[in-house]
UniProtKB/TrEMBL annotation:
Protein name per UniProt: Outer membrane starch-binding protein
Highest taxon listed in the record's lineage: Bacteria
Keyword Mitochondrion: no
Organism, scientific name: Pedobacter cryoconitis
Lineage: Bacteria, Pseudomonadati, Bacteroidota, Sphingobacteriia, Sphingobacteriales
Family under the similarity heading: Belongs to the SusD family.
Location in or out of the cell: Cell outer membrane
Amino acid sequence: MKNYILLLVTGFVLTCSSCKKILDVEPKQSISAEGALSSITGIQGLLTNVYSNLQASGNFGRDIIIKSEVLSDNCRITVSNSNRFVGEYNNTLRTHFVEYSSFYPIINKCNLILDNVDQASDGTPAQKATIKGQALFLRALLYFTLANEYGYNPKHTPGSFDLGVPIILKGVSSVTEVTYPSRSKVSEVYIQIEKDLDGAIAILTNPNGLTAKTIIGKAAAQALRSRVALYNEEWQSAINNATEAINANVGTFVATATVAGYSSIFNQKNSPESIFEINFDISESLGSNSLQSIYQRLGNSSTSSSGYGDVVPSNSLLNAYEKGDIRKTAMLVPVTKSGESIFWVQKYPGSGGSYGLDNVRMIRVSEMYLTRAEAYSRSGQDGKAQDDVNKIRLRAGLAPTTATGATLLNVILNERRIELAYEGDRWFDLVRRGANIVKDNGTLLFSTDVRILSYIPQGQLDINPNLLQNPGY
């Protein structure tokens, strides 16, 4: 029971004791859910804390992105390494994503916001709608990530196993409110994700200025809705929402077909292409636990004592680049590490002006073009699919494709792999298509392999007798 309360109730209590905006509502020794969530200031403080939870190195600040690359066929671990992510690269049983325990406290905060925002004693309707829309997006993002880590894609469920994760939609702030839900079907989780995103789209607008990319707006919700639709094989919805996200101009496609032009997408604090990115201020640097650290050593120096440079592109990924692709030159620096010739990744180069301060680009406009291209291709609209994928190819210095049918689809999927490499897309992209995974180290994972799904921590199974473990564990 104590551990379960830690997952749900403590997530809120600790927030109240650490978030300055909430502490301003009541004296430090008398924080309560009722007091903190009765005003728009307290609710906004809790929302700010949810954003900060995304930054954690165990969440989107590093691990979710890195594990997607090394669990898949995109990246490998250098021979000389710090022993980080080695188990994931080898696809060792039970070495996988571990967000089950960490995400539910964050979901609980989203639920508390949604339970209380409309009843806040102050705040304008516009303020309340903005907070509500952001909380709906964040809850959808968290459930979407959990569904893809612990369940099969709804359209590619091997055999009869179709479970996702438990759906909890009401906030918990006391022991008496704790419940022990069973796992919902993954299709039901997707229905809830889409409902949350549709609700967010209906009430959000797009912010302006410096926060346009780091505060969730309507375009971000449309972009995530497009991604969800792609995974759920709802081609027209993927097309429509991608188009809306593109046309919002929150993220601007960088069309310059040069190394410098492509590098400009990633070497600025706020990427011109971002539709939504997780912001890191100077006091929030993850330092040696950052994406920059795991992809390179400081200054791309093999002798630097700052950083690890352990995760590098696989031979499979390197071979996927076509001759003349400027992305390879722009994003990969050749170095020698302990006698091994490797490439260090430049998508997180310290663009915040200090070590480990890169914003994490969660959704880029280039992804929207690739999502729309795939949806067009799968719905038989080859001409439109060519137009979209060729924007990506031409910018990379490659010839436009004239392929059609299955060949065109393969071109699009390869472009998705290369364009979104090192950003945490690859594992989820392979699993959602039910594809087999072939790795440099000889590992072959069929779509039915037990190691495709993460395992639910035994502690959670002990606490909640209604939970069912994934097959094979």
